[in-house]
Write a structure and sequence with these properties.
Elements (H helix, E strand, L loop, with lengths): L16 E4 L1 E2 L18 E2 L2 H12 L7 E5 L8 H14 L5 E6 L1 H5 L3 H9 L5 E6 L3 H6 L6 H14 L3 E7 L7 H15 L3 E6 L7 H7 L8 H14 L5 E5 L8 E5 L3 H13 L3 H4 L19
Parallel strand pairs: 1-4, 4-5, 5-6, 6-7, 7-8, 8-9
Antiparallel strand pairs: 2-3, 9-10
Length: 302
């Protein structure tokens, strides 16, 4: 396998076959992110990707899903993604779906007809860093798109029957925009109805532009209590039919998961119970450490 640099995959892709496609991020300007550092965005040539697929095809494999590795392989032109999917379908007939990281801008660059064809070729369950539905924060963090553009792109995926997982970052708007950030994010989720939403708090990545902005006083972090309150607000405002809610990452002060809206009240009670167990001085401080998982007593009602 021709892996390029550091490799990241969502936790729910642990049983997927990883095929290296790209390295780094084609945008790489988000102020809060330094995941790829100085890594220059690069893509494996199609013949190299085909070689890797062929190398797997030599062995009897029980994999049912492929995850294309890289910051955003969906940035590749439609014809390249079509070639990769057709090669996978031909060489690995057991594969049922193909996932990858993508950005709203990647999706916007594909026509509805192209998305439909990629869906028919197996693309499904792609992972998108939405982060927020609030335009002021999207602009401030240099995400490269507006909430209206995000909505249009995600609805195009819905029409093509390509499901997707959205990442939300609580605290991204700072204390002043915390509740507005939650409301706008929940509104966008309600409009597009994602397959899965993965929620995690903002945490300062060493070397990120936002870290420097905090040091100079240009940005103020939310406190732990504000982070939890924002997460609760997103849940309170959500009207989702069958969306997996995933908040189990190590950076989450209170780890929760369930299905919305069926488990909405249960999840809110978990967060409220967890919040009450933190000492007041910790609730009034920013998250500069990863608190241990809090034992909760909320009861799920079905």
């Amino acid at each position: 396998m021709h892996f390029l640099g550091d490799t990241y995959r969502p936790p729910f892709e642990e049983k997927s076959l990883l095929i290296p496609v790209s390295a780094g991020c084609s945008h790489n300007r988000c102020k809060f992110c330094n995941l790829y550092g100085e890594t220059e965005f690069q893509v494996n040539p199609l013949e190299v990707i085909e070689e890797d697929i062929n190398s797997v095809a030599k062995y009897r494999t029980l994999y049912k899903r492929v995850f294309l590795v890289g910051g955003d392989p969906f940035t590749l032109p439609f014809e390249s993604l079509k070639f990769i999917a057709e090669t996978i379908n031909e060489k690995l007939p057991r594969i049922e779906s193909i996932g990858c990281h993508a950005s709203i801008m990647n999706v916007m660059a594909k026509t509805p007809e192209q998305l439909q064809e990629l869906s028919e070729l197996g693309f499904d369950g792609i992972n998108i860093g939405l982060e927020t539905g609030l335009d002021a924060v999207l602009d401030y963090m240099d995400k490269g798109y507006t909430s209206a553009e995000a909505k249009e792109a995600l609805l195009n995926l819905n029409d093509a029957r390509i499901s997707y997982n959205l990442n939300l970052v609580t605290g991204l708007g700072g204390p002043e925009l915390s509740m507005e950030n939650a409301d706008a994010s929940a509104e966008l989720l309600n409009e597009v109805q994602p397959k899965l939403v993965m929620v995690a708090p903002l945490h300062m990545e060493p070397g990120a532009e936002l870290e420097k902005m905090e040091e100079t006083g240009e940005f103020t972090q939310c406190t732990l209590g504000q982070i939890i309150d924002e997460q609760i607000r997103v849940l309170q405002r959500s009207e989702l039919e069958d969306t997996i809610y995933f908040g189990m990452q190590s950076v989450n002060p209170i780890r929760t998961n369930g299905t919305l809206n069926a488990d909405k009240e249960y999840l809110i009670k978990e967060l409220e119970a967890g919040r009450s167990r933190f000492p007041e001085h910790q609730l009034n401080e920013p998250i500069r450490w990863f608190p241990p998982k809090v034992k909760l007593n909320a009861t799920r009602t079905m």
